[in-house]
Amino acid sequence: MTSKIFNNFGFILAFLFMFQSGFSQKASKVELPATYNFDYAYKLKMTHKKGDVVLTYFLKEDAKYFGFDTAEMTKGSDTKMFMVMDGNLGVTAMFMEMMGKKVVQKTKLKMSDFNDKANNSDYTFTKIDSKTIMGYDCEGFVSENDEHKITFYITDDVPVSFNQVFGANAKQMPKGFNPEWMKKYAENGLMMQMIFVDKKKSKNSMTMDCIGLDKTDFSIDASAYGSMMSAFGN
Questions:
Q1: What does pTM read for this prediction?
Q2: Which structural domain, as residue segments, surrounds residue 178?
Q3: pLDDT band at 131, cuts 50/70/90?
């Protein structure tokens, strides 16, 4: 959809799609840093016809990685999981606590996979009135084609962004897009609200609202996690 417009919005949707489809990626043997530290917890409330869910992302200033707490998406499971996407190493690391052990599964990360899930070549793009959300001044935009209408509000009055992880891609912009907007949000910028309307399948429509951007000292001690095989005694 719009990850090539503002990575923080399209990336979230593409990431959710890939998470639900199981991340069918190749395993990676890359060595992870000993620790992943985070400065901010970014919470999004997703409201859908089937119910609400709160998604919590962990970001760090100037870092090329971010974390995602899968607790809301893995309810009912005995396995505790936390995911880190490391744009610098090009890997996704799934940290799991299972069978009394801590293990990590590393897979190669390809940005082309996200771009395929977020193609916006047939979208038009329009800037709309700004508004204040949770005390942040936000600019409004609408991206639309025959199937979808996506209204979202983004602010640059924050010290973190998903663009820090993967950069802002200025290729294949939709009709009506001003490249100056990309420059403004290249380093900092977060989506504070999104309204997604599926014109053909209303059951797929949903909204996302930022309900928190709070300082945190959360960290993952990657050195404490062994390989997947270690969970089976090998």
A1: 0.80
A2: 121-207
A3: very high
